[in-house]
Amino acid sequence: MELGYHFLTIHILLCLSSITPLAGEVTTSKTDVSALLSFKSQISSDPFGVLSSWNESLHHCQWQGILCGKHHPDRVTALVLDSKQLTGSISPFLANLTFLQRISLPDNQFQGSIPVELGHLGRIRFLNLSMNFLEGSIPSTLGNCSSLQVIELFNNNLHGTIPPNLVQCKNLTKIDIESNFLTGGIPPEFGHFPLLRLLGLSENNLTGTIPFTLGNLSSLDNNIWGEIPQSVYNISAIVYLVLGDNRLHGTLPIDMCGPFSNLQHLYMYDNQLSGRIPPSISNCSGLIDLELSNNSFNGIIPSTIGLLEKLQTLTLGYNKLTANKPQDWKFLDALNNCTSLQLLQLSHNQLQGVLPGSIANLSTSLMKLSVGGNLISGSIPKMLGKLTNLDTLFLNDMLLNGSIPEEIGNLFRLELLDLKKPERNPQTDSERALKFESRLVSYHDLLKATENFSSENLIGRGAFGAVYKAVMSFENVTTVAVKVLNLETHGASRSFLSECEVLRNVRHRNLIKVLSSCSSIDQHGNDFKALVIEFMPNGSLETWLHPNTNSNLDLPVRSLNLIEMLRIAIDVATALDYLHYHGPAPIVHCDLKPSNVLLDDDMTAHVGDFGLARFLEPPDIQLFESLTSTTGIKGSIGYIPPEYGVGGRPSMEGDVYSYGILLLEMFTGLSPTDEKLRDGTSLHKHVEMAFPEQVMDIIDTRLEANLYASKNVFGCLLSVVQCGLSCSKNSPKERITIEEVVKQLNSALKKLLT
């Protein structure tokens, strides 16, 4: 079956053996000092001045972030510099700190690769490099660190496969490498860690089946398929089992909760599981969270579910669960025993009949309740007014009649109430997602229009798929672009739905226009999803800023001039201003970059690719579904605002940061990941150091050759660069709004033309 991350927590005391000196060791405390100074030399930005103490006036064991040993008081045993906003690369000379037991550098801005030399640290126990911008692969040399107990590398930009020889580290209790770009499968060897308590692999691009050997462990979440190995259900010590958002199929075992005496969190949402929910689920008496939504479970909901007295979250929505007669609703009476229940989702099943009044007897701690999208009829129970802690209530898309009871007014905490009636005509998933007036297209239509998706018609690739040029007739145009989703990529389906949801709610001249969609089956019987969008003959801004041979478009061989560049910048800012403040609901794009800015035949810019976009105030049930989502926000390296890397929520300020980087890139010709910035200097810092006196020194030479002949050129460039710097400040509170950006850039253009 496919990967998910699942957490295995085993309460076992670790007996740590005493550490003996390494054989043949000749290093000294002077070597330690040299290694630390080498580390300091690789730091290009230290905004808090934490390394200012690293000088000869203090003993190195008194330097900030340094700990030394008790038995060897001059030897460094720990390097701890968490959340210091350090920028730079990690020096390979750290490997000379031979007494080092802990490296903790999370939540900084380290770039480059993880030094392979760290594999020489024989005493290292804890390695935490999470929440940085590290690239490259996980060094296989770490398998030589036999004392390692914890590896934390999550939230980086690591690529490649997972080294199987990590299994040589027999003392490992935790491996967390979530939120990277790792590929390949889970090494079968990982089932042989004797002490492993937590294995986090989610938010990667892992594929393949879950090795049967992992039944010895317990924790995964990625692009995995197949059935859940029976061995997983035999892990008596498991506390977390998270297998959500995969393609797992099959049924749950009749006695699945027999050995799960310690299970507290069971996540199997967004899969292809079927069959009945076994009554034996009640044997998992310690369950706190039970999430089985977005599957194909059928039959009635077992009333034994009410025996889960510690239950706080129960999501069963988007299945095929039934309630055809009054006794089928007994589970609702039984849930009265769950006095800690806070979230109950039963939406979009096949529950029918009158909504029992006993729903009002649910726990008063209940905050979110959704039963919409079922075949429920009758009136809204007055007694719902007793659930005074409700802040979200969905009774939408059902056959309810009568008036809204006055008692609903007692729900003083209520923030979101949906009583929307069902649609004039049931629609397909694609129609419901897009609601476009234009005709839908079939897979075979697109196959023909793109000449079997030929490489000659390929005009671009993105994180979730490819874009092809196609010959089709739509609204007086004969050439379109077809964005084909790669559904094997983790998150692609959600990206499709997100883009559909955004694009059906917005219309603006500087946003890409979607003409139609396709949600079908391809010639091999696999799911197929695609969007038909406007064709932009002048390609993306990326191809103009950084020309390459990867595009099949015949673009003119020239550079953009100052006025063109400025007008494109204004177009993009105007699009963001519409999304943030003037659309049906505030929307943040979350992935603004040059490749997502497309240019039409008169060089007007259109912002596209809304696969990561988010509603700040979702207009319908999408909000409720997002409440239990564990999917994090991803963007593109270099354009992601710093706060997103440490769990910050999507925001307008985040979009403004990405726009600021884009603006600086347009006028300097340097991408934020350019080789010239590999010394750890960010694009923002590179420009800031030249501003304002040397601003002409950092302007793109190609743009400089095409500058508009005006005495106000220098003043215009100063305004633009200052705007880019104001947008890309590290602190969200210090950034200007996109409304202010539009004003400043229009003012700069006006001055230029006078």
From TrEMBL:
Keyword line: ATP-binding, Cell membrane, Glycoprotein, Kinase, Leucine-rich repeat, Membrane, Nucleotide-binding, Phosphoprotein, Receptor, Repeat, Serine/threonine-protein kinase, Signal, Transferase, Transmembrane, Transmembrane helix
Residues reported in the UniProt entry to bind ATP: 483
Compartmental location: Cell membrane; Endoplasmic reticulum membrane
UniProt cross-references to Pfam families, sorted A to Z: LRR_1, LRRNT_2, PK_Tyr_Ser-Thr
InterPro entries membership: Kinase-like_dom_sf, Leu-rich_rpt, Leu-rich_rpt_typical-subtyp, LRR_dom_sf, LRR_N_plant-typ, Plant_receptor-like_S/T_kinase, Prot_kinase_dom, Protein_kinase_ATP_BS
Reactions the enzyme catalyzes: L-seryl-[protein] + ATP = O-phospho-L-seryl-[protein] + ADP + H(+); L-threonyl-[protein] + ATP = O-phospho-L-threonyl-[protein] + ADP + H(+)
All copies of domain Protein kinase, residue ranges: 453-749
Entry keyword rRNA processing: no
Entry EC number(s): 2.7.11.1
A GO term from the CC aspect: plasma membrane
Enzyme kind, highest EC tier: transferase
CDD domains recorded: STKc_IRAK
Superkingdom of this protein's organism: Eukaryota
GO molecular function, one term: ATP binding
Cleavable signal peptide: 1-24
Membrane topology annotation: Single-pass membrane protein
Protein's UniProt keywords contain Aminoacyl-tRNA synthetase: no
Function of the molecule: The processed protein kinase Xa21 chain released by protein cleavage after X.oryzae pv. oryzae protein Ax21 detection translocates into the nucleus where it can bind and regulate WRKY62, a transcription factor. Confers resistance to the bacterial pathogen X.oryzae pv. oryzae (Xoo). Receptor kinase that detects X.oryzae pv. oryzae protein Ax21 to promote innate immunity. Following X.oryzae pv. oryzae protein Ax21 detection, undergoes cleavage, releasing the processed protein kinase Xa21 chain.
Family: Belongs to the protein kinase superfamily. Ser/Thr protein kinase family.
Name of this protein: Receptor kinase-like protein Xa21
Organism: Rhynchospora breviuscula
